[in-house]
Amino acid sequence: MLRSRLLAERAAERLLADIASYDPQVVEGDFLVFRAAELGFELRLQRVAVAFEVSVPHPVPRRQGGTRPLGMPLVRSERLRTVGEIFADPQDVVASTAPGWIGVLHRLPVGCSATSLVADCRRVSDLIAAQDGLVARAGIGEPATSVGGLHDSYQDACDALRLGARFDEAAPVHLITDLRVHQVVTAVSQAARNRLLDLTATELRAQPDWPALRDTVTAWCESGFNLVRTAEALHIHRNTVVYRMNKIEQITGRSLREYRTAMTLYVACPADRLSEQRVRPRRPGRGACGSPRRTSPGP
Q1: What would the pLDDT profile of 185-205 be if each residue is shown by its tens digit?
Q2: What is the signed CA dihedral for 122, 128, 134, 135, rounded to 10 degrees?
Q3: Rounded to two decimals, what is the model's pTM?
Q4: Sheet of 101-107: strands edge to edge?
Q5: Mind giving me the DSSP string for 86-99?
Q6: 253-288 CB burial, b ≥16 within 10 A, e <16
């Protein structure tokens, strides 16, 4: 039974790795569909990719008079079983993708909402924390029904996990649908981001309360340019929102009720956050989840 389980885990790992590194110019999608079918998985069913990262909290908690060694493997069969207990559909592909990473290609039942999937990911995070004292975070991609779509969904899940950790570290689950602007901004060169900041927010960034002003611009746009919802999102009085908005408008000479101005500043906000945080270097030729990443031709 142990041998059979290990063989199944290795087969799932290879399948997920091949999907994560899928390149239609190198391998036919139908070939992966056939391989998956041999393992009992129908890849043409609607699925969504989820990426989990399991890490040791800092400081490392003591357990039974000792400390947890930092060099321990963070993804073992017990962690896979924990994820498999939540993602228990026979069509769910669950596999480790790299040390500290677990990937899931979750079959989406008819009528299943993103809210339900987020709740399942939170349960995984809570279970791993309760069992091992580790921190588990998740990124969720978009639904897909093809090998190419699953590749993109998995890369999106990895991007959601990486970006979510930088823009909302406290949240354990991140959806790529909430981070599309951030994803696009990170794809732009540092020089382009710096030029955007220089031309739109130089004087604002010089203000001592710039972080509060930045949060106000973000909340204003994400709340549909609604004053009451903006105040609720920031947990402040709406008069404070009005004060901050007036200050931004006086400094920039542009109205935040003019959508182009508001959206330009909105894009500048994650660009500014990225300028504060250096991107964690990746190994050459590797994706965010430790698997080879497909690159686009061109400069």
Answers
A1: 999 898 999 999 999 999 999
A2: -10
A3: 0.80
A4: 93-98, 101-107, 47-55, 135-144, 173-175
A5: HS--TT-EEEEEET
A6: eeebeeeebbebbbbbbbbbbbeeeeeeeeeeeebb
